[in-house]
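Listing S7. Sequence submitted for prediction.
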Amino acid sequence: MNKKSTPYFYGNVGYSFTTNRQTSGGLLSEIGTGWQFGLGLKSYIGPEIGYRHQEYSYDFSDGSVAGNLNSLSIGLILTF
């Protein structure tokens, strides 16, 4: 990239793992957009905003209950 600032779109898909024995992970996906600004030779910084969807389940002795978590994600990216 030779530009000082550039907009971009991103997408992620994966699987979430939990460390709690009473919950189980599930599908994790995220889409969003951001804007990166050049800092130097090959370094960039910029804000990003996205939408995240995560599936999970609570495990009980007599079964489990599934749920979804949908959220807005706001972050700062640093690329070097």
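Caption to Listing S7: primary sequence and predicted structure tokens for the chain studied. The first strand starts at residue 5 and ends at 15. The chain has a mean pLDDT of 87.
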